[in-house]
Amino acid sequence: MTPRRNDPRFGPDGPSTPPEPDREAAGDPGRAGADPGDDEDAPQRADRLAREEAEDAEFDAAIKAIVSSGLIAGPDPGVVEEIRAGGDARREESPEGEGLGERSEAPAGDRPAGEAGEAGPSREALDAARLLALDEKVEEIYHEILTRAPEHKVQPTLQRVRDVLEMMGDPQRSYRAIHITGTNGKTSTSRMVEALLRERGLRTGRFTSPHLESVRERICIDGRAISREGFIAAWEEVEPFIDLVDADSQASGGPRLSFFEVFTVMAYAAFSDAPVDVAIVEVGMGGVWDATNVLNADVAVIGPVALDHERWLGSTLQDIASEKLGIVKPGCTVVCAVQPVAVAEMVRERAAELGARLVESGPDLRVVSRETAVGGQLVTVRTPAARYEDVPLSLRGAFQADNAAVALAAVEALFGGAALGGDVVEHALMSVASPGRLETVRTSPAVLVDAAHNPHGASALADALIEYYPGRLVGVVAMMADKDAEAFLGELEPVLEAVVVTGMSGERAMDAEELAGIARDVFGRDRVEVERDLLAAIDRAATLAEEDDDAPMTSPAVVVTGSIQLVGAARSLMGRPAPDGA
What we know:
CATH architecture of the largest domain: 3-Layer(aba) Sandwich
Helix content: 40-55%
CATH topology of the largest domain: UDP-N-acetylmuramoyl-L-alanine:D-glutamate ligase
Low-confidence stretches: 1-38, 70-80, 86-117
CATH superfamily of the largest domain: Mur-like, catalytic domain
Largest sheet: 8 strands, mixed
Mean pLDDT: 86
Strand order of the largest sheet: 4-3-2-5-1-6-7-8
């Protein structure tokens, strides 16, 4: 297999600037007008002509998109040739190509006869059209992958993923990895690990799920969502191999790769192409049969284990823990968060069985102290390697302090158990963000979003709300049908004055009236309202929060929670930028 190359389309700043289409000269500015074929043999000439033809087609598509979008007035996309002619003329006038598509500053009446209408589209319009075309391609790929088995349908085999990756040269073996499982806190912990590694100067890849707003959030390079071009390139790279494995599986009566399996393969390939030094990989669900588990990670992180996804993982904590412990591999380091007693014992047994080093919450891994602060909290954390004093953490809540301790221990483990520099820790944790996790998306009154979606997450959210928001709180809630809505709402009932139940799209979503019935059982009829439209629900909750908030020195707030999908929609409605620059 040919060596994998570094691809400049992947990186923190997105794609590199593409070559301008239809450039006259291929040489340096001093050779403007030179024939690029002077020093070419026939194959080189054919290759160049093919590239130019492709660039022309891309230019045409961009112009058509501009016209179709109304960015340029025109009777129909047939004006392309006329616009192209104007663009070509401008390129000829600018030896270095800097005038591509720029309009003349002179008023139309002051231009020489025949010049009005000849100017090509502005660079901004071309960029807008190009992004539109790329977004459409990303959506096309996403919807194609959506035709596969959904990500919550886990098949008890890793063979299909292994087969695809093996045909690609096992890209997942080209970097070190930290693998993270647990019921809650995986994404925030992943982001803290990423921030610490980047502060140490390492290039990172991060794979998390599900996404809040853009599917590109799932695959991040150096803290930024994979570029549009990078996403398309990753799909085009893996698609032929996926097709082969799909065909082989179906020929023997098996299924195609699932939605999540495809994204896992894309992420592992993108990380290798970048290339990254370390991948931070969040398990989709469980561990043993999760598609990500083809990794042989250096560090396995076991976050808090609680009841969730019982339909697929089992109905007891022991069942769920057994699934999650599947990511522990021989000789790795296991970093374990605070667990129920039975789960902690299972972790110890698994680590001993596989000869893995164990770092578990206790005297040598704990949050020593924490206090609220403007913009977050100050935490002192003890790890096996060091004591980190009064570290500013930008994320709020005791659960985030616990996540920070686990993240610190995981990164120490990657470096052989060595302590991290104080400046590294401070700079990383004071700037880390975790969109959708106790995040303020509007003020006056405050609108908070939190992706809690199970009772354990709701309990942590309730504690944080008590600590940070002593004013009148009203919830906006929607949930998936397979969640324990009664227990979830029960955790929040003591801290919310009322709830407005809203709706979500999708076959897995619980009907708003059904959820409202459960909410009335928990809160009482007079504390529950239904508003299916999310924006209207937020506005109604804001009104309710402000109605009787007479307490001095407190402010009312709205809390949108119950589903990651709901939180993503609320962020978008409130005008928050998509996570990670997606």
